[in-house]
Amino acid sequence: MSTRASFVMGVSSLLQSRCLWSSQWRARNYSVPSALLPPDLPLLAETARISLIPKEAEEFAPKIRQVIDWFGQLQAVDLQSIEPALRADTEGDNLRNDVPETFENREAMLAAVPSFEEPYIKVPKVLNKE
Amino acid sequence: MASVLFRGIQTRPFLLYPSALLSRKNGVLFCTTKCSQSQTATQENQQTQMKVSPRTHTKKVEKILHDYEAIIGIETHVQLDTLTKAFCSCAYLYGSQPNTNVCPICMGLPGTLPVLNSKVIEFAVKVGLALNCNLSMNSKFDRKQYFYPDLPKGYQISQFDIPIATGGFIELDLPTEYGGGHRKFGITRVHMEEDAGKLLHSGNGSYSQVDLNRAGVPLLEIVSEPDIRSGLEAAEYAAEIQRLVRYLGVSNGNMQEGSLRCDVNVSVRPIGQLEYGTKVEIKNMNSFSAMNRAIDFEISRQVDLYSKGEDNQIIQETRLWEEGAQRTVTMRKKEGLADYRYFPEPDLPEVVLSEEYVDNIRASLLELPEVKRRRYERMGLSMQDVLFLTNDMNVADFFDATIERGAEVKMAANWIMSDIAAYLNNEKLSINEIKLTPQELAELISSIKGGTISGKIGKEILFELISNGGTVKALIEEKDLVQASIPTLLIFMVNIKFIK
User: Which residues form the Asn/Gln amidotransferase domain (chain B) (predicted)?
Assistant: First the structure.
């Protein structure tokens, strides 16, 4: 995924985690709109590992605010009598049988690894998940 | 299964550390002096820098533990025994050469899409039903996003707000050697997710190494309610989860292999206080006995700080259990809660269960440990026997098959628990691998009961049957082992007299 796309995903997930989570456990009562707070942009950029210079952060903040407000319009919809959907789409299930298959071109994949030290992928030492 | 733990015969890991010899008073556990004696020897060798000797420490802690209760919750990750990974068709074989069970999907290469393995749903439903949960007939996957070298996609596919199962419970019986007792612990939720790869830190510290064989392997995360109150209860809870997943055939539940991992959250509070104390997470416990000891240590540590008025030094953090030093140490202080930026996984459809599907699975479930224990109890077996026989499903099945063929219950139990178990232990075999059949064991028991052979002869025949198979009747004839009964002797003597 492109960094821009993942950034947008980050913002929308922020929306999710802020509104949906709390409303979820209120028996999915969407008739009560909750206030949509703008995200802490520097913190969000840090979690998404996107480096922003202060000028960019300043530029982006109102734009992100606009995106959130735009989504926020959805809260005006009356959902009293609608059964909540878990997610968008109704393709039906897409399941696979539990049958092993070896990928034929493992060598090509491993050859494409930037830093490979047989048999491991070499990475910088990172101890902390934060 | 080659390696099977038999209770009461093979030394259970946590019997080595009788710090688990605990009695229950006012809902709080404390060590008896016996445990401090056996601990002292090892601890004195290990830690000369301990300011307080173990014995006085234990006595002091004994007093104050009285006034506190521990609140413990456990998160268990169970690696599922499916043939392929959760979202791709790679096989998973523990012990394979690094980076050999991989494909573009589990390596997170651009453009790949996950496809769910149907077996994962089946196993999740089995576990949900076995844990008496409410199943979500519709659930979904979410992305849990964070960056770490063993997480190829930069996110883990998991279930956040709508897990496949919620609100269940598990029941177990505490071992008789620790006072026994029945417990019921709540299960908050069960959800499906994928495992990350393995990260190895090199010796010299400048870089690390990643093996992605394990990336994408299906996991079930089982979260308990904070109903657990001691290290012993926690160890037994984990053992029961292991027993359950083995009974269900969804996982081999080996902690040593990493197919069963437990993270524990411990807090304490003065008895009577409504608010929970600060929660501390403990990681790096590699056995049930380690869990037991780690939790008891942590309870003592926290209670000790409370008693000194220093409970503000208990901070929400993750601590590591150090097996060598037998203590928990700070890993890294948690700087607030992590923000995983959850959102629904767009590449996977909803997981929809039909009533029929669930009913079929429910019907296919075999007798679970708790039900078996209660049935064996009703048969008149002692709790100690019950716990032994039900620990391993294969042993229970063997026992059931033996009594089905008419063998007397107590005798069957005794033979299995003593001579047979001893043999299995010595030869490191499972009960399925010996040549003795339940039919022949039943035959042996009735032969002894009927007086055809003595108990002593029975033991000899048993050994022969276990190692070489055969039938009781054949062995008795072959070795001419029929116990002379009085009527037979008289007839023999009378015949001799007549011949003379």
Answer: 397-500
